[in-house]
Amino acid sequence: MTNKAKTAWRTGVLGLLVVLIPTGIYWHRAQQRFDPEAMLDVSVWLKTVSHVRVDAVGDSVWEAASGSGFVVSAQKCEIWTSHHVIANAAVIEVYPRHWPHSSGIPASVVNSNPRTDIAILRMQNCDGIRQARLGDSDTLHAGDDVYAVGNPLGLNPNSISRGIVSHTNRIANSALPYLQTDAAINHGNSGGALFNRNGEVVGVSTAIVSNRNGNNTGISYALPINLVKKETRLLHNGPPSWGDAGINNIVTLLTPDEATVFRAPQGYAALILTETPTEGPGADKLFARDVIYQMDNTPISTASQAAQFISSHNPKDTITFHLIRAGETKLVAITLTDGWRAGESPAAEYYDGHLGMTLEMWSDEQPTRPRFVNPVITKVQSLGPAHMAYIASSQKTVARNGPIVFPLQLDIKTVTGAVYNGTYTPVTGIEALEELAITAFASNLPLLLEIETWARPSPMVLEEPFQRRSTLFHRVTPALTKAATPELIPSSAEFAEPGNQAATKQVAAFDTVGNL
Asked: In the chain, how many domains are there?
């Protein structure tokens, strides 16, 4: 090859490299491009309303909450979130990004696991909603960028925050390994996705370390997505299940120095039973002051490690406990039981009328309550129309003045008006509202109830008058319940706190005028 040909060849190669290298860099950066829009498009926020419970003075207590989640299947309309977000929820609504309506898409629970804090939901429809891409949490390293999407504090939907992975295997008051991150995560972010820079979900935001005010301190935890994938596969096959030895709440930690006093092997930390199990697999096999320093071939150094080791086994598996009892080494075989205990879902309460709430006319003024010309909401029945419309009852608490216990009225909610078929009608009596509800029920049309909330500036200062705080409208669809019969419903006095005679007398003295 001549010098001229060599020069031309080298020039051509050099020119090719000049073109290919920037192109390669651009392509690599394009693959690594941070795309917050894609992360937001697959994320949702959740609104829930709890089942109604009855407090010590007989009032219904209603709670709304919010959380986050992400879509994993646009075909099945499937969402993953945290169990604690939907635990005890009677109503679950899903709000995708750019959702134009005030009410969300109804969703139901497919299955959930309180131990791993994972839940699978299914929306009624998910047309046009994108699904997330799931990543590999095993590839994460400390220092990697991550992005948390959710609805922090329940007031900031479609929020995204950036941070890094602080630790990839943190055990924090649980039997599970967490990803630790400094991305800003607050209450309301629970169940939301933690993304890597490629827009893949690598974790599910679960918990935070907070200060006294409950605010983020820069330490947050997310379940690794690989653990979540494994858990959801099991949940699709049926109820959750894990091994349990029945000792979680009756052990305390001994350091290696403390354990040696019990004659545990040198260098071993240990757990000591604080009481004798009376039921479960440990009954008649484990006793108070047993010192457990090893399970099978695994040394046990913390209660969380022990819980993680036990729950990683299946029910009916057998674990050999290495322990010290009265200074002697013992090997005790424990056959695990199922740690899952299914709770009963609260049933709808019986109610008369069509709105599922109890109203009273407070026409006379009393020391603990003022006079109102509009009906006062004193109770909301669980799963009734008012409950499903996010209506809360007036709230009390039990207060004490020396030896005297009395109910302290915290707020008062009154129905001041109703809109039916476009027409507003002031509500000054229970009978008029009941007639309007009957008409709406017969025509299968909703009512829009106007509800005022009143409260004192300082709840404990009874001399201060109640002031109007807000006026809100609630869309209610009148209905009838067949959940129970009146004979099966306990009287209001039966809801009072046991032993609280003052509270019981107050509840029994209520004059219920009407049930809607």
From this structure: 3
